[in-house]
Amino acid sequence: MDHDDRLPPELMTALASLPWESAPPPGEEDRAVRALRRRGMLPVPRWQRYAAYAAGVAAALALFVAGSITGASRARASLERVDAVRAWPAPVSNLRSAELRVQRAGSEYVGALVQFAALARAHPAAPGLADGRESAATTLCAAAVQLPRLSSGVGAERIPCDDEVSAPTRADATIHWF
Amino acid sequence: MKALPDASDRALARQYLDGSEAAFRQLYRRHTPRMRGVVLRLLGHTAHEVDDVVQESWLRACAALDRFRWESTLSTWLCGIGAHAALEVLRRNERWAGDAALEFVADGAPPPGDGLDVTRALDALPPRQRAVMVLHDLEGYTHDEIAALMGIVPGTSKSQLTHARNAMRSALR
Questions:
Q1: Contact list, A34 vs chain B (CB under 8 Å)
Q2: Total-model pTM
Q3: What domains can be seen in chain B, in order of their start residue?
Q4: A113 lies in which domain range?
């Protein structure tokens, strides 16, 4: 086989007609610049750096504001719950809350009587002892008057109390203090 | 520092290495058409990877520019990088014919015809024959250089060139 390195004349003419250069399509230069920047082989222009900083700051601010709004909203809701727990008397809106209020009031009443009785024993001659006893009895009686209303029978016999019927004299009443 | 259009390649390269985008753009506009011409002829005018190969070649060139010793022109160096990248694509895409097929020229030869122009005749050659012909007859590489570039022996390069020339002659007759 002939391995002559010289280019045959007819091919030389043909190949000489080939264009040596080929212009790149539009946008290729920018693509190359972007690729160099991505690889850190060209510095990012100053305006792009500033834009990136500005975007970062804006994102941080947006995050902060969103966090603040969310936090404030949740804190408000939490405070409202705490306020509701602390509120006394609790708002009565249904039978369950009414029942809870009765329980709580009863506990408060009994607790107050225990404290009063302890102080009365310690200071038997203190002023206000008689008033306290009267308040305790009156409250208990008023509560007892309301009890028939809780029974299912309509027109249940009412228990009289001293503000509705003639009250028994203090001498007749036998009160056992606890 | 502003990259002047008539600044030397060396001055522009120095400015680019100092971070000048304008200098890179100037070098790109100056040398890409020639580099793209080489890549286009090696891959064939229908190849869609041409511009990716050109970009990859620029990335490699820029990464190695500080080590370029200016013993050849920048254009020659860049075209060599482009040729190397194009040959890698041909190899990766397994467009090479097998060794047995290399000797069988008729399969890859374009059909003879009056209207067939040189570009189409060249594109119709088997990739390895086209690569040898482009590198030898158009770019002036020696068979030793082609053999080193393509990972073949110089004798194969010579026989490929002979086949390519015969095919071209037939096509252009």
A1: none
A2: 0.58
A3: 8-95 (1.10.1740.10), 96-173 (1.10.10.10)
A4: 93-178
